[in-house]
Amino acid sequence: MHVAPPSTATVQDHVALAEIELCGELIIAASTADEERLSPDRIDEVLNVGVERSAPPRQ
């Protein structure tokens, strides 16, 4: 079995890091919730989702 040598360059996937952070926020909210599951409204609140957005005009 051949293993690649460790790299000295650090690569950051900013989208993946943002998703991990959001998952962490959901885990924290779920662990402190009184109910068994988070409601969709609570999930939106944790993820800081705004009010329903209007669709862009069609062309």
Task: Please characterize this protein's 3D structure.
The protein has 59 residues and is mainly α. It is built from two helices and no strands. The longest helix has 19 residues, at 14-32. The mean pLDDT is 84.
- Low-pLDDT parts are none
Beta-strand segment tally: 0
The end-to-end span amounts to: 56 Å
Gyration radius from CA atoms, angstroms: 19 Å
By helix and strand content, what is the structural category? mainly alpha
Largest sheet: none
Q: What is the string of SSEs from the N terminus onward?
A: HH
**What helical percentage do the residues reach?**
40-55%
Structure annotation, total helices: 2
How would the global form be characterised? flat
Note the beta-strand portion.
under 5%
Q: What would the average pLDDT be, to the nearest integer?
A: 84
Summarize the structure.
With 59 residues, the protein is mainly α. It is 44% helix and 0% strand.
What descriptors fit this protein?
single chain, 59 residues, mainly alpha, flat
